[in-house]
Structure formats: C-alpha cells, structure tokens
Amino acid sequence: MSNPYSFTTEDRWLTMGDGVRLSCTLAVPIPKQTDEKFPILLEYRPYRKDDSFYNYIQPTIHYLVRRGFIVANVDIRGTGSSEGVLIEREYTSQELDDGELVVELLARDPRSNGRVGMHGLSWTAFNSLMMATLRHPPALRAIFAAHGSEDLYKNDIHFMDGILHQDEYILSVDHENALPAPPQYIMDEKWIKERFTARPWIDVYLEHQLDGEFWQKHSIKYAYENFTLPAYLLAGFYDGYKDFAMNIYENARKASSKIKVVVGPFVHAMPDASHRNPGPGYDGKAEMVRWFNHWLKDNDETNDIMDEPDITLFMRTSLTTGAYRYESEWPITRRKIQRMFISSGKKLIEKIGEDTAAMSDIDTLEYRPWVGFEGGEWWGSATIDQRPFDEYCLVYDSDLVDNTIEIAGYVDVSLQVSATAPLAHWFVRLEDVDIDGQVWFVTGAALNGAQRTIPSTFLEPNHPYTIKLQLHFTTWTFFPGHRIRVAISNAMYPAFWPSPFSMNTSLYLDPLTTFIDLPTIPGLLPISAPPPPPFTQKQIEPEYIFSEAFSGGRPSKAEKFDIVSHRTLIFEQLSYELLPNGCFISALMAENFTVSRTDPADQKWTTHARQVYVFDVNGYLSIDDIPIKDEDESVYPNLDLSARRHFELRTDLTFYSDRDYFYVNLKRQLFHPDGTANSSTITFEFNGKHKRQFQ
Prior knowledge:
Layout: E1 7-15, E2 21-29, E3 38-45, H1 54-65, E4 70-75, H2 93-107, E5 112-121, H3 123-135, E6 140-146, E7 159-160, E8 163-164, H4 168-176, H5 189-196, H6 201-205, H7 213-216, E9 231-236, H8 244-252, E10 259-264, H9 284-296, H10 304-307, E11 311-316, E12 322-327, E13 336-343, E14 347-349, H11 354-358, E15 362-366, H12 387-390, E16 394-397, E17 405-409, E18 412-419, E19 425-433, E20 439-448, E21 465-470, E22 474-478, E23 483-489, E24 504-508, E25 515-520, E26 551-562, E27 566-578, E28 584-596, E29 603-614, E30 646-657, E31 661-671, E32 682-691
Parallel strand pairs: 3-4, 3-5, 5-6, 6-9, 9-10, 10-11
Antiparallel strand pairs: 1-2, 2-4, 7-8, 11-12, 13-14, 13-25, 15-24, 16-23, 17-22, 18-21, 18-24, 18-25, 19-20, 19-23, 26-27, 27-28, 28-29, 29-30, 30-31, 31-32
Helix pairs in contact: 2-3
C-alpha cells in the first residue's frame, strides 16, 4: 500500500444513559488534507481489549487505521475495562441498547464523517447482525460479519441442532468475565458484587433447553424483512457457523441493498489467518477495506465490489484443496438433485428395482453414547479419518464413482426410524471413501428426536417415525474410484450430550422414506471454467503480518482413554501473553469428559481454568524468552514474585447429569488479591440443578 496514514491511539469513556461508562480505544488516522474526515469501524465485545485480547487485535487495528478508518474497540458493559454490572448472558437487550448509543456517540466524533461500520467474527459478528437487523442506529451504514449466526438456538454452541453442547468457551467466557478491570485491577467489594459472584451463564442457558422466546428474541431469522443494511458475510467449512451466510442471503437478499457471501476453507478465523486453516486463505482484511470504502467513504475510487457476483464458494476437492469461484445466483439454477437410496446390504444406491421397492428391511443399531470422538468438537472440525467412528454406526456405501460428482449446498436426508426408548438423537454424516479406504467427513447434521414435532414430545417406543434432516452447508467433489458414504449413529460424543436411555434404534430401509438428496452441480469444462475471483488470490502484504513474538503457549492436547466402564476424553490448552506494559498473562483451559459405557445418563464434564497475571516483567524480546516454572501446570513464570505484583484467578466447573437432571457446580478463587504471596483467597461457589427438558 502506498502512502499509508500515520495514526494516534487514545482511550476514552462512552457514557451510557444510566451513567455507566464503557471503555473505548480509538486508533485515529492523522489527516493528510485540511478538514479530512474518516468513517468509524467498530468492534463491540466482552473479550478484554486491554489485556487478554490486546495482542490479538493489534494487526487488524493497524491494517484498518492506516487505510483511512477510525478504528474503535469497545468493551461491553461489565466486562474488560468497562464499568457496570456484568451482563447476565450473551446478546442481551442491555448490550444492544448500549450498542445503539455507542454507534451514535462515535458518529458524533468531530474527526468522523458520521458513518459507522460494524465488523468482526464470532461475538462481534453476532451483534453486528443484530444491530443491523433489530436496531438500525442511523449512523450504522454497513456491516462485515464473519462466522455469525441467524439462529441462537440451533445455530450456536449451546444447543447445536437442538442438542446440548459443552466446550471450553462456556468455561472461558465465565472465567474471564470474573476478572477485575484493567489497568488497575482493583479487587474490592464493588468488583466482587458486579463480576466475581456473577451467576455462571451455563446455568442461565439450562433454564432454556428448548427453542422459544428466550432464543428467538434476538435471532435475526425472525426479522429478515428488517435486514436492509449492506452486509458482507463470511463463513467457513471448518467452523460451526457455516450455514449462517447462505441462510441470510437466501432469506434477506430482497430486503437488503446488497449482501455479499464468501464460504471458504476457514476455521473460526479470518481468511488471512492461513496458518490456522485447513485450506488456502487470502487477505480477508483487504476485503473489509474494499467493502467499507464503498459504503462509508465518498472518495471510493472503484466500484468493483458492486460489479462482482454476490456469491463466492470454495469448491472443495479434499479437506485441503479446491478452488474459489463465483456463483451469480442462489440456488444455482444448473443444480440437479441426485437421490440415493439407503438400502439393504449396507448399500447406497441410485436406482431401485421393483423387488427393492416392495421391500422394507430393517437395520438395528445398539446405542453407544461414548462414540464420536473422531467427529470433532462441532460440525466441520473433523479433519481425521472417520473409520474408528464408523465402526459403531450404520454405514451405507455407494458403488465406485464412475464420473466426478460435485455438490454445493444442503444435502437433504429422510429416514424412517424407531427407538426402544422415549428419547433418541440421530446423527447423519456424509463422507468420502477414497481409493486407499480412508474416510473423510464432508458434512453432517443431528436431530433431537423429541424435536421432530413442535412442541417437543417424547417418542413412542418402537413406533416408526419419518424424520427429516438438512445437513450443514458444504461443497465437495467425489472423484472416480471413490465411494459416497452415509454414516448414521445415535451419539457423537463429546460434541453432543448423550440422551439418557439405554436402547436400540432401527432404520427402516423403505425407499419411499429413507434416502438422501445430493445437490449436484454439473461440471464446467476446463476450457469454460472461469478464473478464480481476483480477491481470493491476494495475499496479505508482508508489512502487515505482525510478529507473534509476544504471544505463545503449548500445543493443544486432545486424548482419548478407554476402560471397561468408561471413556474419558481430555482437552487442554495453555497460552502466554506479554503486553507492552510488562504484564505477563498465562491462561490454562483444561477439560475432562467422562461417559459411562453402561449408563447413558451418567456423564460428567470436569473443567478448570487458571489465569495468572504477573506485572513488571520487563526487558524480554519475546514470550519465549520468559522462563516458565516446570511445575504447577506451567502457569507461573520462573521469576522472583516477591517483588512483583501478581494474582491468579482459578475457576473449577463440574457439569454432570443423571436420567432426570443436569447439575452445575462452580467454584471461583482469586489468589493473591493484594498482589503478594501471603494474602488471603477470595472464593465464590455456585450450585445449580435443572430438570432435563427433552435433552
């Protein structure tokens, strides 16, 4: 980039209507011309912009501000450096009320041109979508949302596909939100009342195990007609939110002035975080600049982003390969539905004969609640061979593929099933069996058996039901010599909490009710195949690849242990940060899932988080230069702590179930609150109990 802007950084307070002040950090370009004004790009979240997230957000800030945007990062009420009582959960009315005023106050800045864009991934994608659809502050002109959601019940992490899900985020967000506010980290009665003794969010969500007003109020799928702002939506095949972008496009494109969609080979990150992705990335921040230049600036030199087709898809040829291409319409008009029948002999067939049509064989599966480790922690994260999982599933394979089959979109599945218990879940995975016999995950989905109807009802044991599933958005190419596989199970642990009854389930192989529909796309001849979209070929400039010298950690751990009575899964991650002010932070997240082999209701999720802050750690050129104690889970630096202020927050959370109830036991401890090794410990304990509601 030629002639980038220099900039300054400042912290300021944004005062809400009730007097609570939210902490805002602004990066402001230095004008090159008299009276030059700049649009504002806002990220608004609870992830502690001034310590835990400080190093992470710097590359984005520098990239955007040097291209002529005021970049604002704001901590949500009661989190990070902001004042106020911790919000009671994600995406509250209070968060959105404050967000409206935040946009208004930022737009009033005399250095601003009065136009605001919201952007981000995950939480900031969610509230960007909500602000654009449900609130419409006048100064908000466009959004850029990566890995968001239109449905807070089935397309978020609490009840994925309608089934209870637990993972490290549920621990970490509660844990970090109990920390005192930087930079002073004052630990007084006010902090204890407003943050440290807050009810854990997991307990809030367990009061709402079924879809309803609680989830629907801020799910934008119920307000598509209000989705009028221009939106750039980015989704990833290896992320849990891969459906949101195309769902919004399909339902809101008539209301919005412009929706642009990219679905690529991304994990829960921007495309330019290529070292974290299974497939090729590109400079995603450059796309943000192109988008916001058009909608927020008067001097946008080109209109190219408006002339491009709305949809860009990465057409996968494996888990790590493929090619980007434009699609000018959705659904793709040249798409053809290829129906394949789940048939006797564990076969997946395209045509049925008269004899087959008259038959209705039944395959039976013993419920094993502990299977599914290879399926990943959420849909799309499975990038390993699926054969160990498939050993415990009903598996149906096609004949060898003769001609290349390309699919794009949603795979529809119909199954006729029954269960010997009043509750069962069904999990369907579409897979690719390669020429070496390895099995690769393509897409999948789950159905909570009680949610086959509205309102939810238990199953009548041994009664056949026809259930419908729509597998999550995908692209894939099945090559000659491969086989198409469908794998069906009643568990996928630990991604989904098991249903509580021992049972067998049956699959009725009636071709009228048990089949899959593949959205196939006729292949383009090589001579007519268009070149890839230019923006997908642009790599981030070296000067904007920030050194990660001050962020580090240990490799993540995921292990599986089996004994006669139980299966145990262990996950652990440990990270280190060194901030410019000399603050060293370590963060440990450890999870232990234990599932009984004899009693499906007997499950336990034991977790703990530790976060250590040590101040005055100065003179080190990288995080790797700081010595770490090889003891006590390696969370403390091997330094003289007697002369340095330090403290530790520890959260221990145990979640478990029996046939009738879920139980939550949480313990928070703040060690060394006065900064010395001899100070007392502050402790908070919480216990919750919730009746299982069709889970």
